[in-house]
Fold:
Amino acid sequence: MKRYYIVTHGQAQHHIDNLVGGWFDSRLTPKGIEQAQALASFFTAQGFSKSPAIYSSDLLRCKETATIVADALGLEPNLDARLREMSFGSHEGMEQALHDSIMKPCAEKPGERMDHAICDGAETRRQFARRIYDFVATLDAEVECAIIVTHGFAASFLISALQRVPVESMAFISFKMSAGGVSELIEDDLFKNVTLTKLNMQV
Structure:
């Protein structure tokens, strides 16, 4: 049996400042640090029989969250840029209200949505999904338990990739995620089914 914990980083400063995130690098707020410490307590209480592997987006808010969790478990996080949030190109760090008023909304047809960029330099869903899938494909086959610290929208795509949802079917994928949330997926040994057992659990 394999177990995957998908963790959304704690509250970050751009949340408070109402700025677009994406690859814009902001650090955890005091509340975000408290959320990361709560995550550390949650994972410590799991009593893992074998140490989990910890992976994290290399952006600061995820790195800080992952480091707090990893320190509590006596581990080192593996930083990976493929776990970053979707890139919002020229709008990263922009006031959220301005971004909302000038972005180019997605088309309604799945094929068009997959290759649509909401602003100059932004990633498309297809580009985003492929790099998340690439990360999943390189997870160590020997890892029985993985804690993966990522971002809100990226978490939706990561869950879908772990469940082998084809990239072409990710045009409308979205799960509601909150800062400091934990989702759990379990892959059984017999059928290799990947079951989403917990979604955005607050600890």
Observations:
- The longest strand covers residues 194-202.
- The longest helix spans residues 30-44.
